[in-house]
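Input sequence (195 aa), recorded before submission:
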Amino acid sequence: MSETSATKSYDDMTQEERDKHDREQREKEEAEQAALPYKWKQTLQDVDVTVPVPNGTRGKDVDVIIKKNHLTVGLKGKEPIIKGELSKDVRTEECTWTIEDRKEIAIHLEKVNKMEWWKNVITTDPAIDTTRIQPENSSLSDLDGETRAMVEKMMFDQRQKAMGKQTSDELQKQAILEKFKAAHPEMDFSNARIS
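Predicted structure, token format:
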């Protein structure tokens, strides 16, 4: 790390110093990730890990144990290539592994929390800066029903706030109050406030 980035806070840096700091951090992160005995990538829904193994490796030659919060991967009779606590919990019943071209183990981990990025696969491995993740463009139709509804609501509320209008929750409260007013015309609602 350069002396400038070590002594100044990020907010106090010039744009040139920030660019240099960001570049150094990115290079450090890339070097740490390249040194791992596996490669990995993720979406909000899942994590895919590939582990190179000797050419000709078959399924019966490997040990893969996927638990809710733990992963062990290796060749039978040898020290595990990966062994440790997972960054976050996975849905074990939806996780899979295969041998690809008899030279790598491909592991698919299905996240329990489909709304957060993992910093690493194994908690003791070097972390990535999740604030720099550029998610692939996806369509709302790619999401499951519950997630899609939540994302659509968030998008609607964001548009409403930008226009200075009521959010969906505020609109719902207003509708409930209007129904209550209609059902109770004898009551005075002139000073009623929705909170």
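Checked by second reader. Confidence is low (pLDDT under 50) at residues 1-5.
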